[in-house]
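We close this part of the discussion by returning to an individual protein. Part of our work consisted of pairing the sequence of a single chain with a tokenised description of its backbone. The amino acid sequence and the backbone structure tokens for this protein are reproduced below.
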Amino acid sequence: MKKLVLVAIISLFFVNVHAQEKNKKLTMDVNGKCIMCKERIEKAALGVKGVKYAQWNIPTHQLSLIYNENKTDPMKIKTAIVNVGHDTKELKATEEAYNSVHPCCRYREDNSDDSISH
């Protein structure tokens, strides 16, 4: 009987260890210019199943993420971001996606900093 209880406890321990989510932190470069870009980028990242946290920094262009690596991966997140018109280092948005962003958000055409005016 003691062995049965011990086996049950050990089994529950291993099931619990495997059931825990594998959260991972990641920072990536994402092109953009203003608060509208920030909202669009964060919304796209958070729309990927498994992404728990997304914050894009306007001056540094760094997107900080926390995601469940059992549910998603960096390439899926990058794909979601380029689909809304923002380039990453590895992937570029299509012309159609890029042209769908507000004209003030078009970072490819000029290097001005519009982050204050939005």
